[in-house]
Amino acid sequence: MSGIAEYRQVAPQGTVDIIERLAERVSGRRFVHVSGGRVGGGPAQVLRTAVPILNDLGIDTSWEVTGGDSAYYATVRALQTALEGTERVFTPEGVDHYLEMNRLNARKLDLGADLVVVHDVQPASLVTERAAGRWVWRCHFDCSTPQHGAWTFFRPLINQFDAAVFSLPQYARRLGVPAYILHPSIDPLSDRNRDLPPRELAAVLASLRVAQDKPLLVQVGPLTRGHDPLGVVNAYRIVKKHHDVRLVLAGAAEDDPDSREVVADLREAARGDADITVLELPADAHIQINALQRAATIVLQKSVQEGFELGAAEAMWKGKPVIGGTTSGLAQQILHDVTGYLVRSVEGAAFRIRHLLNNHEQIPRMGAAGREHARRAFLVTRHLLDYLALMVHLVP
Amino acid sequence: MRAAGPPFVFMGCVELRQALDLHALDERELLECVREAPADSIFFHTYGYFLRHRPFTTAYGNDFARWAAVELRDQVLAERLAVVDPFAFPTLDELREELVTIVQDHVHGAEAAARVPFARGFHFQQSHFVEVPLGPRAVSLREFRDGLAMVDASAIYLHMVAARARRGRAVGDFAEWLRTSLGMEALAEKIARIDAYLTTLERVRGRLLNLVDAALEENDV
Considering B94, B126, B158, which residue would you say is the last residue of a domain? Predict the structure, then answer.
């Protein structure tokens, strides 16, 4: 766990000074974050880094977690999925149980603070029990096209907050409260992004059986159709006619028939080509992901599904050019023709890979631009600036 | 030479973005939204571009031009919007009128580009600046130079760009202080003429430092 002083070596010059000055302005205030759990990505990933740093800055910040029984979690999952745009069925009993469980949670948790930030769906209805202080709903997903019934239930809850925060303006819905925009971030000092000494890097790659004898194309991300790993294989096959390269696809499969079918197709492709490696990795394989991104010549993030995943920012931080799909989150991260390329097709991805391999001098140039872009726009230090600005704005 | 007036206090800023319920999915909707958007939103999508893209000089000078090029794939409209220099307009309403005229003429004169899906639309935003004193205070040109060299780049944006567009200080904070507190009219005039359009904040800082260094040498301060 790192204190704010350690971020001086990685943040843009002057950023930590501004963070410290903003922290002075909110000292003496109390802040609470509430999420649905302490593990996994999304809010938990951000809070694991941000809460200790905020306390290190002298800001009294705590992190509370809601819980419940299996029926509560089932309704939360259905509600989250429906708000993300997939049709789900709700029973009035299930919704009432969700509200009742959060009323119980509100009695157990210490929610007395100047600013309470509630993350995502699970703890959202705590707002019905709000007392003093300002309350903000932080939405980490795209809820621009929710199932109508789910939004009809959820919108009145959100309108009881003082403000909402989204990762992108196009992920927001029309609300009766102000909607602020904060992009997510990566922690440059975490196992997933910290520098790896050459010996450690080589050992991790050896453990994954990934050779470094040829230019390496890497895509990190869930092995699902939304992240288009099969499209990446097809782009690789076009490139392979002209360049002797390796391809590594690394990520977790999801527990559904469609994802299993994708993995089976990938395994089949890998069986016929020794230069394709498919790695099913657990969610906490951070050092392995770090090593793969650092070993890559070019990183691909060819998602076709909306979402603000940070694979591109992670790769740019490691000085790699990134070829990504044109989803809103990737378009926000990749500066086209500066830090990488945005592509709309398999052929477009292949064309850009060939272009970079044939003009090798552009690879370090784009990588260096990407690292500076990530430094300024996607490190946790920028996220802290945004959070502190929000605190100063809402709790002056 | 010491200041006759108050010291110069360098301020940095953090931009807190706010989404507005204004979305354009084609050129006609862009025209309507530019007409309706609050002045702060016009500021955000034009002058604010320099704060958000500060490490690089990019191909487009504002968010409208970038959207026309990247999402609508309308290069003609993108080129017409890209050459709009926000610093050439004394008020945000005059800047807005220029943008409206360009989009209107384009919509009337050409085949309109296709509509894009919501995720690729133009989503209007505005921002709130949270200002932060950065520490250095200057009472002489030498101290001003030292502060200028070390402050966060957001201070260059706040004092050179936002001060002109949002606070009506036509020459910016630096030139104003040099003129009123140090009586350095010639240096103030040169600084007021720095072209901050289509460059980076670090290059603006470099030009400022060159001018101040030359003045220090000339005055042997």
Answer: B126
Which SS3 state, helix, strand or coil, does residue A386 take?
A: helix
Q: Residues A191-206: what's their mean pLDDT? A: 97
Coil/strand/helix, residue B81? helix
Asked whether the beta carbons of residue B134 and residue A181 sit closer than 8 angstroms, the reply is no
User: Which of these CATH numbers, 1.20.1070.10, 3.40.50.300, 3.40.980.10, 3.40.50.2000, describes A4-185+379-394?
Assistant: 3.40.50.2000
What is the pLDDT, as a whole number, of residue A109?
96
What's the sign of the alpha-carbon dihedral A27, A377, B86, B145?
positive
**What is the predicted pLDDT for the residue at B55?**
57
Minimal C-alpha gap between B39 and chain A (Å) = 17
Chain B hits for A372, Cβ within 8 Å: 55
Q: Which residues of A touch B (CB under 8 A)?
A: 12-15, 17-18, 21-22, 25, 144-145, 166, 168-170, 172, 174, 178-182, 306, 326-328, 331, 335-338, 342, 369, 372-373, 376-377, 385-386, 388-390, 392-393
Helix residue ranges per DSSP H, chain A: 15-25, 43-56, 70-83, 92-108, 148-158, 198-208, 229-240, 257-271, 286-295, 311-317, 328-333, 346-358, 362-377, 380-394
At which residue do the structure tokens 């394989």 appear?
A285
What is the Cα–Cα distance from A335 to A371, expressed in whole angstroms? 12
Tracing tokens 């899906």 back to the chain, one arrives at: B117
Confidence (pLDDT) at B27: 95
| ipTM, two decimals | 0.89
Tell me the shortest Cα–Cα distance from B88 to chain A, in angstroms. 27
Chain B's closest residue to A142, CA to CA, is B119
Structural Rg of chain B based on CA atoms: 19
